[in-house]
Amino acid sequence: MSYTDSYESDIPDAAIFEADRASKRDALASNVDLRAQAIELVVAADKHSYGYQWEWCGVPIIRHPDDIVLQQEIVWDLKPTRIIETGIARGGSLMLSSTLMDMYSKESKVLGLDIKIFGHALEALSEKITQGKIEVHEGDSVSEEARHRIKTFLANSLAPVLVVLDSNHSHGHVLGELESIGAMIPSGSIVIVADTIISEMPANYYKDRPWDKNQNPLTAVDEFLATNPGFYKSTRWGRRSLMGECRDGIIVKG
């Protein structure tokens, strides 16, 4: 038997490959020790601002690489033509969403909302904004003005959308975003709630912020789901990202 024949005989077909991935994915999701090691790595890497070291299409994106790839998978599977994001920072996440949708739709748009939008973000996104691919709204994402802007952006479409909540991470604010935006999005839509990882970080880690282990995006998700049975946590997406910041924070509107 030649090397080529031997090599090919060791390659599983698609069905076996997918079954093996699914099995290992379940094991990965339930491995408490492995996740604890990942959190230790996150804490150590955070000393070097690990989450700030990446770019998408030349624009800084304040996300962990695990979550960037995971969002790509979600977008490609859902194929939304509308994405709503709260929290703009330097603009990289809006660029990610827009360029991903460009792969399959010429009519796609992203709406970014933030309490303050800085000039450097507008400059980085200027071409996409000029093209009408990205829209921005400055103001509180749970305000009545934001609600009106989101309604206009969705224009009563029944097609599923993707929502990324990555602004103020306090329990009350995230819960407000879920209640407000959740009521406006169509069935089948997916919401990525960022920084649920706060619940796994050391106590008092965020000394200068109004969130911590006991009140954070994950506690907001759990309260929201308890009173909104039309939504549920995704088992497909929610735990595969080992160093991801949105573990158990990916929810679906049924």
Task: Give the helix tally.
Answer: 10
CATH level-4 homologous superfamily: Vaccinia Virus protein VP39
CATH top level is: Alpha Beta
CATH architecture: 3-Layer(aba) Sandwich
The N- to C-terminal Cα distance equals: 53 Å
**Low-confidence region ranges:** none
How helical, in percent, are the residues? 40-55%
Write up this protein.
The chain is of the alpha/beta class and 254 residues long. It is 43% helix and 15% strand. The protein is globular. The protein contains ten helices and nine strands. It has one domain (31-253): Rossmann fold. The strands form two sheets. Strands 5-4-3-6-7-9-8 form a seven-stranded mixed sheet, sandwiched between helices. Strands 1-2 form a two-stranded antiparallel sheet.
